[in-house]
Every structure is written in structure tokens, then in C-alpha cells.
Amino acid sequence: MCRRAIVTPNNEIYVGNAGDSRAVLSEDGVAIPMSDDHKPTNPGESKRITEAGGFVDIGRVNGNLALSRALGDFEFKKNTNLSVEKQIVTGIWDCLKSQEVISFIRKNIAEHKDLKRACEDLMERCLSKTNEVSIGTDNMTIIIVGFLHNKTETEWYKWMASRYGVKGFKYKEDIFEVDLEINYGDYDDSVNFSVDSDNNSNNNSDDEKEDLTLEM
């Protein structure tokens, strides 16, 4: 899987991806998709695979590859009668939905954890606890980009933490997590995060958009 993202001087974000990687933008705690997954079970991807002589079994290309577009995997690109874009394969998200990931990261920030720790906790949350082939046994990578908007890093963390439970959606522990007895702690609604009044006028207004980008 592969993804690339750039931010222009005009604050425009462009994202390109291949495979089952995904880019998600959090705006005020709401997940906004920035890319489309290339999964073998998607109707368009499945159609191309079968027309190229392949098949989809247990959600995998020829029962093997879990993504339908990739760099490499040349054994799926050997049909000399087809153009590159029509080959069987042309180029975390099984565990949690985009909104759940956004809410999970924001919850970690509200618990005074930095982005590095938030990444580690998310990987731990998604990692399978058995050696059997199942959800959470594949390799996983995450990159989190926080847009400071002229704040210092400390100001940004305080500002983000103060908005959890006010803007967007809270993370809800699900049955899968309870069954694995993973305890990430509970968010305390009574926690009061102080914000410097001098920064309220231009940096910390409630009307200011909150941006957080995740690439996985």
C-alpha cells in the first residue's frame, strides 16, 4: 500500500493512494474521507479482477492479496493481453471505522497523550491477540499530522483536548475491545483545560476549525 499527501501554500490538501491505505481528515472531530480504499471486495475492483482472469476469495485477490492495487506484486500483472490498468492488481481499517479512529486519537489527546503515544495505543487497539489469520494480524502503519494554525505545540494540545466531548464524537468502547480486556481509561467530563486568554482572540476561538489528518 502507498499514499502521498501534499499541502499547498494556499492550504489545499491533495492526497493520492494505492491499495488499502487511507487518508482521513478530522474537521471539528468529524471524519472526512480523503481517499478511497482499493479492496478486492469493492464492486469495481472485483469486476476488474475477474475480467483479468483472477478471483476474489475470503476478501483477497486469488485468496492471497488483501488489496487490489499495489506497487509490485508482479505475479498479478502478467497478462500480456491487458493494459496496465486492467491487470488483476493495479497498484487498520478492518478493525475500526474512520470516525472511530478519529475519535480514538482525540480521546488520547484529551488524556494528555502526545501523538506518538496515540499512534502506539491505536496500534495496540487494532493488533490481534492471537497468531491465527484474522483481523489485526496484518502489518499496520499510521501517520498523524496536526495542523497548528499558528499555535505552539503546547497550545495546540491544550486546545485539542478542550474540544473533545464538545466538538465531534466521543470514542465509544465496543464489544471487541471489552472482550480483549483492553483498558484505555475513561474520559472525565469534569476535567477543565485552561487556555490563555491572550490567545483566545486569534488562535483559540470556538469557531476555529480543528484539523487533524491521519494516513494509514
TrEMBL record:
Residues 193-216 are annotated as: Disordered. Residues 1-147 form the PPM-type phosphatase domain. Its EC number is 3.1.3.16. Its cofactor is Mn(2+); Mg(2+). Keywords: Manganese. Residues 205-216 have a biased composition (Acidic residues). It comes from the Eukaryota. Residues 193-204 have a biased composition (Low complexity). Belongs to the PP2C family. This is protein-serine/threonine phosphatase. It comes from Gigaspora margarita.
